[in-house]
Amino acid sequence: MALKRIDKLIALNCNVTRKEARQLIKDGVVSVNGNRIYRAEELVDSASDTVTVQGHTFCLKDHIYIMMNKPRGVITATEDPRKETVIDLIPPELARRSLFPCGRLDRDTTGLLLITDDGEFCHRIMSPSHHVYKTYIAELAKPLSDDSIKILEEGILLDDGTQCLPAKVKYYEENGIPFAEIKIREGKYHQVKRMMCAVGNHVENLDRVQVGDLKMDTSLQRGECREITEEELQLVFNDDSSI
Ligand code: URA
């Protein structure tokens, strides 16, 4: 049983500040298991207690994990004075003040982006030592030779001297258009684009389709998101290709 202060849990789950949460409690609009409470220090069990705020019942969780189908043209940041960010696309029912994207996709990259308020989870995904592979589909300007695939799979040295870890690459063509499925477990700046550039190719379009074993939910339209389930969460760290 993990007991937590009610004001903290309300702030985390209801997209309000801690101060606003305390005010809601003072205003008498917060109930725990049907009993109105007036003390911000009240302890509740987020796993079993039912908390109602202004008549709405909240499922209180320590953290939230969201899958987004990132559209082109939106930046992977928490806020920006001019440009639309991925956080701006989160619907109110999933919004929390402390959300941030796990890693970064370029503005013109589409696909699977995880968004959370759990820093430890994010670190596990991002750190190469945890071997969480991210899978991208890159539409290429020209076919990829077997020699290029071998170089990428051995760990390519980029033009600026950056050494990449070994990638897993599959080349294929669809309607005569060259594509590569590429799996990497690091997240260097423009990494896939720079890797392809280093073998004399060019990425025309880049889409992330998988993180670990968690695949993009293809029923989500670009710009849409949803909370991921407990089972899906396990898939992130359960990657067959990382063996
Ligand atoms: N590699 C890139 O070049 N861009 C991305 O957005 C992600 C990986």
What keyword list fits this structure?
243 residues, alpha+beta, 9-stranded mixed β-sheet, 4-stranded antiparallel β-sheet, 6 helices, binds uracil
Quantity of strands, as a count: 15
Instruction: Please give the radius of gyration in angstroms.
Output: 22 Å
**Helix-strand category:** alpha+beta
What's the number of helices?
Answer: 6
Give the CA-CA distance, first to last residue.
35 Å
Proportion in β-strands: 25-35%
Please state the overall shape, judged from the principal axes of the Cα atoms: elongated
What is the element string, with H for helices and E for strands? Answer: EHHEEEEEEEEHEHEEHEEEH
How would you describe the overall organization of this protein?
The chain has 243 residues and is an alpha+beta fold. The chain is 20% helix and 28% strand. It has 6 helices and 15 strands. Strands 7, 8, 9, 10, 11, 12, 13, 14 and 15 form a 9-stranded mixed β-sheet that branches. The longest helix is centred in the N-terminal third of the chain and has 9 residues, at 18-26. Bound molecules: uracil. The site of uracil has 8 residues, from α5.
Topology:
Layout: E1 3-5, H1 6-13, H2 18-26, E2 30-32, E3 35-36, E4 43-45, E5 51-53, E6 56-58, E7 65-70, E8 100-101, E9 110-116, H3 119-126, E10 134-140, H4 146-154, E11 168-174, E12 177-184, H5 191-198, E13 203-211, E14 214-215, E15 225-227, H6 230-236
Parallel strand pairs: 9-13
Antiparallel strand pairs: 1-4, 2-3, 2-5, 5-6, 7-9, 7-15, 8-9, 10-12, 10-13, 11-12, 13-14
Helix pairs in contact: 1-2
The chain binds uracil.
